[in-house]
UniProtKB/TrEMBL annotation:
<protein>
    <submittedName>
        <fullName>Proline--tRNA ligase</fullName>
        <ecNumber>6.1.1.15</ecNumber>
    </submittedName>
</protein>
<keyword id="KW-0436">Ligase</keyword>
Length: 450
């Protein structure tokens, strides 16, 4: 992409309404624009990051064997009356009527709708196990929408639902989600810690939230510092293996880690004092096992091996896709702007032309741009006639992890400069060497087509 052709409405001033750093940088970098309280338009740069996050989520869900699908944002109230949640949800639910005076709602989550699909089509245990998921917009009329996309009213969620014959199988689905989530967050450059949590309006006893530690997080968390030393790494996990998935759950949940809702001071005090941590975190996902709560209320049964009808065991599993954009920025920035992890960066590398209009510099930039693009990389080429300082400030603000600087002086010696946004370190090299280096850096982070 050429910056002269792009829509990047960068703000010089810090917007007064933004209280936390991610919200400030998202507004300043022209990623989002508020449409009304807690509701945002995603401008091209922000939308690109959102799509990258979605793609990683899809890849990891497919790897775990889950089936992608899509359900509507508007639902009939009738299903929610069946489950008993129509009244429970209270003012968080946005309700409306259609022209026939029928009660409708904007989906805050989709347990009812998926259970209705299931009961309409599945009647035998032979069709189990089954896990389907979607990435779809949700609406919760939060009392206090704040911090930009972190607590929106409209937000993008990955929500997955598993259907199993037995509790044991459903717990395997739970563990499988835990493993796939660890890998998902890690690919986004995040450490998200599973913590025992409260199930709230979704229901059930078994639930973990995934928290990214950050001072600006909304949740207070209590944990054993040993948990932060665990790395998921590039493990070759067989998702169909109950033992392997269970072993990962054991490893990542055996130390004390709880949100304030489930915190137990006496248990916490058994952790050696030097390892006890009280901090704040951003909830980027939550997994639930709730057994037969919805299947019993809504008559979702299958015929078991003995011919008897039994309600299916279920769970649901969510990732805060739009919230993740903010969470990643909270975890990765400096005073000048965002520092995107390689896995989610909107463009892989910035090209800064120090002297737009200089024939040699222009030609070198064009060659770099074409060669990077041919390798499947996405460069953002600043071909504007802004002065060099302004170009660097914009690149730093929007957070591309790598920058290639091209100027007449370097070109005389046959070199360009490759700069790492995170460390600030620069190295001179030939344009060809810079292209190869960038291609090499991103090789493990190229999101394959779906
Ligand atoms: C699990 C999937 C559920 O709704 N039903 C379907 C279950 N879980 S949850 O924890 O309530 O939400 C899942 C994730 O969505 C994000 N989230 C939000 N993001 C931005 N703004 C909000 N107002 C908001 N509310 C929830 C969180 O990351 C949460 O973990």
């Amino acid at each position: 992409m050429r910056l002269s052709r792009y829509f990047l409405p960068v703000l010089k001033e810090t917007p007064a309404e933004a209280q936390i750093v991610s919200h400030r940088f998202m507004l300043r970098a022209g990623m989002i624009k508020q449409a009304s309280a807690g509701i945002y338009s995603w401008l091209p740069l922000g939308f690109k990051v959102l799509r990258k996050i979605e793609n990683i989520v899809h890849e990891e869900q497919l790897r775990a064997g889950h089936l992608p699908m899509l359900m509507p944002t508007l639902q009939s109230a009738d299903l929610w009356r069946e489950s008993g949640r129509y009244d429970d949800y209270g003012q968080e639910m946005l309700r409306m009527k259609d022209r026939h005076d029928r009660d409708m709602l904007f989906t805050p989550t989709a347990e009812e709708l998926i259970t209705d699909i299931f009961r309409g089509h599945v009647s035998s245990y032979r069709d189990l196990p089954l896990t389907m998921y979607q990435i779809q917009w949700k609406f919760r009329d939060e009392i206090r929408p704040r911090f930009g996309v972190m607590r929106g009213r409209e937000f993008l969620m990955k929500d997955g639902y598993n259907f199993d014959l037995t509790k044991e199988d459903a717990l395997h689905a739970y563990n499988r989600h835990l493993v796939s989530y660890l890998r998902t967050y890690e690919r986004m450059g995040l450490q998200a810690i599973p913590m025992r949590a409260d199930s709230g309006p979704i229901g059930g006893d078994d639930t973990h939230e995934f928290l990214v530690l950050a001072e600006t997080g909304e949740s207070e968390v209590f944990y054993d510092s040993e948990i932060t030393e665990l790395k998921f790494g590039d493990r070759d996990i067989d998702y169909t293996s109950k033992e392997q998935c269970h072993a990962v759950l054991e490893e990542f949940t055996s130390r004390y880690a709880r949100t304030d809702e489930t915190h137990d001071e006496a248990l916490f005090n058994q952790v050696p004092e030097a390892r006890r941590r009280v901090a704040r975190g951003i909830e980027v996902g939550q997994i639930f096992y709730f057994g037969t709560k919805y299947s019993e209320a809504m008559g979702a049964t299958v015929q078991g091996p003995d011919g008897k009808a039994v309600p299916v065991h279920m769970g649901s599993h969510g990732i805060g896709v739009s919230r993740l954009v903010g969470a990643i920025i909270e975890a990765s920035h400096d005073e000048r702007g965002i520092i995107w992890p390689e896995g989610v960066t909107p463009f892989h590398v910035g090209i800064v032309n120090l002297k737009t209009g200089d024939a040699e510099a222009d030609a070198a930039c064009e060659t770099l741009y074409a060669a990077l693009t041919a390798k499947g990389l996405e460069p953002l080429y600043d071909d504007t006639d802004e002065r060099a300082g302004g170009k660097f400030a914009t690149m730093d603000l929007i957070g591309l992890p790598w920058r290639i600087t091209v100027g007449p002086r370097g070109l005389k010696n046959g070199v360009v400069e490759l700069t790492c946004r995170r460390t600030g370190e620069s190295e001179e090299m030939s344009p060809e060497a810079a292209i190869d280096r960038v291609a090499q850096i991103f090789a493990p982070h190229m999101v394959r087509g779906l």
